[in-house]
User: Fold RNA helicase from Pleurotus ostreatus.
Amino acid sequence: AKIRILSNKKAAKLRNFDSPKKRRVKMPWVDVEDSPRSKRKQGKRPSLNGLHKTPNRFSAPNGPSSPSKSNGSVDGPTKPGKSSSLQEQRRALPIALGREKLIAKIRQNDVIVLLGETGSGKTTQVPQYILESGIAGTRMVAVTQPRRVAATSLAARVAAEQNVKVGAAVGYSVRFDERSGPDTRIKYLTDGMIVRELLSDPLLSRYSVIIVDEAHERTLRTDLLLASLKGIQKYRSQPSDAKGKGRASLLNPLKIVVMSATLDAEKFSKFFDNAPIEYIQGRQHPVQIFHSAESQSDYLAAALRVFFQVHTDQGPGDVLIFLPGQDDIESLEKSIRLYANKLPHKSMEVVICPMYAAQAAGQNSKVFNAAPPNTRKCILATNIAETSITIPGVKYVIDTGKCKEKQYLARETGGGFDTLLTKDITKSSANQRAGRAGREGSGVCFRLYTEAAYNNMAVSADPEIRRCSLTSSVLQLKCLGQDFQELDFMDKPDYDSVVSAYKSLWLFGALNNSKELTPTGRQMAAFPLDPCYARIVLASKEYNCAPEIVEIVSVLSASSKLFVDVSDQRDSAAELRRKFRHPTGDHLTILGVVKAYQEIALAENKAGRREWCRKHFLNERALLEARDIRDQLKQTCARFGISFDEGVRADNNNDDAVLKALAHGLVQNSALLQPDGVTYKQTMGHTTVKIHPSSALSDRKHPAIIFNELVYTNQVYARGVSSIPKSFFLSIPTLNQRHS
Ligand code: CDP
Ligand code: MG
Assistant:
């Protein structure tokens, strides 16, 4: 199970792809083997995951030998045949060989760190082993995931392996969507959801084992969870006669399994007082890596070209293309469709499977099915396919070298807001991505960047806690009676970000002048929303406009965008959208769209609704998701006596109230028109911004604006903008205090 970088002269001579338009495009490749620099360093070339270098301490019970004898013989994707049952597939996973030893280790230790390469069976098998061996007792096993689509699709897989329905013995819980019940024993949740569960159950008493999966990603929520788990574990393992609340004694000790696909296990082990590290011997086949000879200015065009190069020249095997985000995925999907239709009839058919974090549950099941005969699956994925989801059948990987990363600009924005920036990936990601081609047989990875660019990449990413807004975490910890600075984190957060989080919460009225949690703060934390949106919902009670605000906030919290990107048909779309356009800007425009859709929904059938959305360049998925979110938010609202009796008003007499409520949450996202009449200066930051061209407001001047987010391109743009009278800021109590 060692990674070799093959020299394959035939593959090195990849023909330049002739696009169906007969335009000759050059896509020269350098085989890494042919480049003198790499030859020199070949011995030191980082392995695809480095796992083979680590001692094989986790192995078959009868000896330390490598478990995978079948390696060499496999060439080309080997899909589990129809005859092989799910149970056979389970037994064939690398992790299965060490099952008994692993169970014993978990039984003996309160914390273990489990390291194994992607696809070895950690996420799907470990929870089942724990359950089947009785370690879990009568309580539940939680498995945390950084992304919702991973949580939902893995729950579906494990439910199938256990031969139960999702929501029965195996369930999941992600924001705005829960499938679990009284019988649930294994629950896949996003790291955000388990942090939320802490608020109502601070000792996580429903669980006996918490599996912190994908720990190497170091998301803010995972770090927060790890820090909290340390304290919870200590409390729950107090002897039953210990003084205290007496509640701990009723609970069995909590077990923690930290799982990771990369080599940073030591750090986790240290954090948990030198917890033992277990390694799973993986099966990795050789992957041949090609770098682009020149840097590519347009990674989408390059990916398109290389895909068809592979598709027309290479043998069977599915293609996995790594892209930064949903937008790119959707646009590449369109282009591939377009060109694939123009290929000669005898070519293999292309089945495109998009895969990104925001996808709804169940939307991606075809990605796991084997491609039908004479078709090639083309999977367009974000870095979700790097380690959290293994897709069978992949032989070719095309890596754009880009990802989207949350970035917090505390100083620039003056507020607690994250932006998603498209960035270069790290070496660790690049190696993981390449590794995805060698899961089932030898594979090929095409990197759309030069070898020099690879060498310049950072080794691994900064943990999120050092680059994300901490506002919601500070608030959640406050609700648990803890202060962010006092918690023992693996990496200390940036001082500026902590200060900025406290400032935001104070401006929202969630903390008082002595940094104590207020009733408003506690209510805000109860909403599964970004704190600024939670504040807006609470303000809507005061201004009597909850039905309108909840509709708007639901659309803003949905994972898909409401307005379809229409860069190629901007004029006709603008024309059609004009009728929804509200003079005060984007927030009330959204409300107008929702109202119109609700009317259509009453009058039309499913096909009619879909057609209406298509005609108006609206994303129906966003509207449907928003409807579900709204129904959930209503339940939380009911707990705080926020009334929906009147419903959304048909006349627009409530517009001022809606804008006032919005101003409460977007107080830090506000700006005033500058004398130049074009730019706006932030009221609480130092940045000068322009209104984004996509906004309903972009063509006129407005004395004061509030906005949802800032977008950084060559310019700083405010997106999701409404115009408000300056006087509205005066209705916000903390602002008055600040200025008086
Ligand atoms: O967590 P780890 O990366 O170690 O592996 P896993 O997610 O447990 O996946 C083990 C195996 O299950 C892989 O071969 C996947 O392809 C397969 N799997 C699947 O076929 N369908 C799913 N929905 C999830 C996993
Ligand atoms: Mg996994």
Q: What stands out?
A: Confidence is low (pLDDT under 50) at residues 1-83. The radius of gyration is 27 Å.
